[in-house]
Every structure is written in C-alpha cells, then in structure tokens.
C-alpha cells in the first residue's frame, strides 16, 4: 500500500479550491449575519443576534414554509414522473437504454434560464398551450397559467426531472429481473410484485433523486422570479431581494444561513438513513464471518 | 404397482422468438411423483420449455395440460407450478423466513398456518438456524436450500428447477444431488429439472428427455438413454462414446480401413449408407479372448489414473481419434500397461450401437 500521507496530497488542489471558493465565502456570509444593518444601507460592525430572530418572524417563517411546500410538491411530482420514466427506460431493450437516457438529459445542454423562458412561451396567455386549446376548438377565456404557483412547480419539476430519472435508473437497471419473476411465480400479482419487491429495492435511488430535487428547489430563485412573476416568493427570492433591493446584507446573510441549515439537515438525514442501511449490511456481513 | 398417472402433458408445443424457433413441436408426458430431467446443450430450448411450464413464456402453438387442464395461457401467479431459479432469485431485502413466507402470504392464508408451514419446511431443509438471516449472509448451498424451501412451501403440483446445482462447486453438487432426490421423495412432489450436465440427470432423474435445436430426441429412463441412445448425437452427448465411422453392411459397419465391426444394424439403415459404430469405454476389454466378435490392435498413447479406474487412450487403425478404454484398477494391477505398449482391444457385438452418420 502507498503511504497515506503521500496519497492524501492528491486532495490538496480540491481542498484548496473548496476552501477558497466555498468555506471562505460562507464564513464571510455567516459573519455578516451577526452585524447590524447601517442606517443608509451598508453594515454597522456591532454584534447582534437580531437578524436570526427576524428569520423566525411569522412573515419570513411563512415564506420558509411556503418554499418547503412548493419544493416538496415539485419533489413529489418529479419523483413520480421520473421513476416511471426510469422504469420504462430500464425495461427497454438494452441497446436502446443509452439512447433514452441521452434524451432524458438532453435539456441540460441548454442554459437553465433559456429552458425556463421556454416555459413562459408555453404558458403565456397567448402562448403555445392556449393556441393548442384554440386549435382544438376552445373559445373561452385563455387560462391563466403563467405567474401561478403551478407554473413555478412545473418549472422546477421540468428542470430537475433528469436528476430523478438518472438516480432511479441506476438501481432499476441493476435489479435482477428474475426477482420480479420469482414474485409472480410465488403467486403475487404485478402490483404486489411492484409494491413488495421492486419498490423497496429501488428506494435508495428515489431518496437520492428526491433530496436532489428538494434541496435545489427550496433555494431556487430564478424559476419563482420568472414563472411566478414575483408574486410567489420563495426564500431564494427573499435572500436576493435583501442583498440587491433592500440593501440589508446582514438579514440576507442570516436568511441564507437558515436556508443552508435546512439543506444540511435534509442531506444529513439522507446520509444517516443511507448509513444505517449500509451499516446493517456491514453488521450482517460481520456475523457471517464471525 | 399401479400404472403411473400422467401429471403434465406437453402436447406439440412450439415457441419462436422472431425468426428463431426455440422449441419445435415437443410432446412429452411427465408422470405424477417422478423426477424428470430436461437435458441438452445450451440453446437446445430446455430453458424456454421450462419457462413455458412456469408461465413466463406463452407457446405459439400446442397445449400444456396439467391434470388435464390447459394452462398454456394461465399467468404464472395463477398456476400450481413453482420454479426454482438458476440465480435462486431470493429477495435480498427479506430475511430467510420472509422469503419463504412470501408465497403463502400471497395465498392469504392465516398467519398461524403460514408460521407452522414455514417452520416445517425450514426444518426439512435444515434452515432453522438461518431463519433471521438475509440472503447475502448465506453460503451458496444455504441459498440454494432457501430457494428450494420457498418453492416447496407452496406445495406445488409441479416443481421446476432451472440448473439448480450450477452455482455450486463439484463436491457440494454431488451431495446436493442426493439431497434433492431425498427431498423429492419426502415431499412427494413432481420435480422437473433443467440441466446441461448429463451426469447430473443420469444420477437424479427417473426419466429424462434429451433436446437439441428445440426438438425432442429421446425420452426414457437414464439407463435406456445411456445404453440405447436414439441417435448419434445422444450417444455422443450422454457419457463417453467411441465412434468408428464407415458404411452400413448387413451385419455391422465396414470401417474405412476395411475392418468389420459386428453389431445389430437398425432397419432404417440401408447397406452402403454412411454409418457409425459405437461402443462405450467400459465395454471394451484389453487382451480379449480369441472368440470376441470385435478385436483390434492398437498402441497405448496415454494413461489417466482416475482412482477407481484407469483411462487409456489407444491409437488404432479404425478411427482418426484414439479409442477411450476404461480399465478397472483391479484389472490394471493384474496386467499393467504403460504408454507405448502394443495392446489388443475387444468388445462384443451386443455392446455395439450403430447409427446413421
């Protein structure tokens, strides 16, 4: 074996990069959160906890809850659609699977903003969907779809769906097809087979995909700004406003820290759950050898 | 003994995948309580046939009658047939007990009955100590027993086993062959086993079917298949056989070098047709008596000591390949031979089988 001290040198560039561009800025923002806002904007360097107190103000706490609800809904929809798509891809003939996966991630080739603008073109009062309805014979008022919570959720689902597809495809494609056959052979219907064999064995993929969508959605500010028309504030927009409009950097910093705390909580919970699962396996293997 | 009852009748069943015909008009009867083997090289259609019996494939043509009822189109969860998968297909997220209980839960039996039946089958398969383990904590042999218990606990009319011993090492395989036979006797369920291992089917099966290219070549007891193969392929596939190519004559085969191998010529072979005479290695004697019907001189090329017996490769003028001869250790001790020795081989006309070539 190589000496651990020498091989760990390989981590230096990555650590340096993360320190300079992640740890230091985060520490600066964290520090900022403990100061007062100056009377004419700017920062007054006296220590305070007021900013964090304000985060729990019903007005802002409500925005946090609202963000969590929107992100949660988007996550749920993305998981259902993404899992179904991943299931279909994994069931397709082997040689077609890479092609379908390629199409699943194809939207990533264009810019996030452009993809979101495309939804405006679709959902607009006189947009493509309205035109399609007209063409189908609909004559009433054009439906108002843009600048609704539904539009925000649709945008989030659309943007993060490929992550769910990829995360769910991995365990689904590795699943031994004979397991489903064995379940059928033992008397289970197709539905029971899915519920008792396929789903439990692919939960890790669902969890990974779901955490991804939730964490990216709850902090998102572009999609609610563009598709929500500023009427549906999420934490991301609030932070953005504090820094760039209200000029209250300390409060913006406190909000950003609260958001990071929520994300860390979700990620830690998922890591602990995954660890418990693999811990069980390790413990089990230990018993075999013992 | 009463006349054995037919449990499963496979009636002119065919299955093709696109342009490939996997099973080509096979008809077979499998009897109540018998241990039946489907044997053939890979690609012969045995696995497809098994999957049609389990319900995972639907025949394009023909009927599959179980107790007289056509089940060819019955889904797998609705037929009293269970399959033990080659990969065992144990549910990795369930304990041994949960794996074995699964099939009974699907029948919606009362919890008490499930428990007692699972306990009983775990005891039969000697798995009680492993009931709470997950499949990944089991050895290959233990996994195999769980797969067997999981299928047997359902008390199927028919148990299908797909290469059940393929994943085990040679020594364990020998033990499990006897174990499977004992279990089959104990539970009184009809077993149909798919294997490519001719030795395995000879040891375990009451009757066996030899398949090739989707067609049934022969269906009989292992003894009959070994001693009276239906054709050249079966003769070659089952056990070891020495072949002497030549032309059919009235009372045997004329080898290329002009020598005559005496034996009974099947009525279907017209004199002069390409034919092959064959004899099993254990039927050949070294230094035969002068009245032996078939005799040939040869040179020992190689010896392989195999414990119980000695295998000789003897070069003769009869065939391009050396003859394989099995001599018991006893006989080899009485009259030792060495590589390079000139010997004479002999065998009776009754031990010769003649096939079209």
Question: How would you sum up this structure, described in words?
Answer:
The complex is a heterodimer of chains A (290) and B (357). With 290 residues, chain A is mostly helical. Chain A has one domain (55-272): MetI-like (MetI-like fold). Chain A contains 13 helices and 2 strands; from the N terminus they run H-H-E-E-H-H-H-H-H-H-H-H-H-H-H. Chain B has helices at residues 46-54, 96-106, 111-124, 140-152, 170-187, 198-204, 222-227, 232-237, 329-334; strands spanning 6-17, 20-31, 35-39, 61-66, 69-70, 81-84, 158-162, 190-195, 207-212, 215-220, 242-249, 252-255, 260-262, 274-279, 285-286, 294-305, 309-316, 323-328, 342-347, 353-356. In chain B, a hairpin with a 2-residue loop joins strand 4 (61-66) and strand 5. Chain B is an alpha+beta fold. At the A-B interface, helix 9, helix 10 and helix 13 of A face helix 2 of B.
SSE map:
The complex is a heterodimer of chains A (290) and B (357).
Chain A lengths: L3 H4 L4 H21 L2 E3 L5 E5 L2 H6 L2 H34 L5 H9 L6 H12 L4 H8 L13 H26 L2 H9 L4 H29 L3 H6 L7 H10 L4 H41 L1
Antiparallel strand pairs in A: 1-2
Helix pairs in contact in A: 2-13, 4-8, 4-10, 8-10, 9-10, 10-13, 12-13
Chain B lengths: L5 E12 L2 E12 L3 E5 L6 H9 L6 E6 L2 E2 L10 E4 L11 H11 L4 H14 L15 H13 L5 E5 L7 H18 L2 E6 L2 H7 L2 E6 L2 E6 L1 H6 L4 H6 L4 E8 L2 E4 L4 E3 L11 E6 L5 E2 L7 E12 L3 E8 L6 E6 H6 L7 E6 L5 E4 L1
Parallel strand pairs in B: 3-8, 3-9, 6-7, 7-8
Antiparallel strand pairs in B: 1-2, 1-4, 4-5, 9-10, 11-12, 11-14, 12-13, 14-20, 15-19, 16-17, 16-19, 17-18
Helix pairs in contact in B: 2-3, 2-4, 3-4
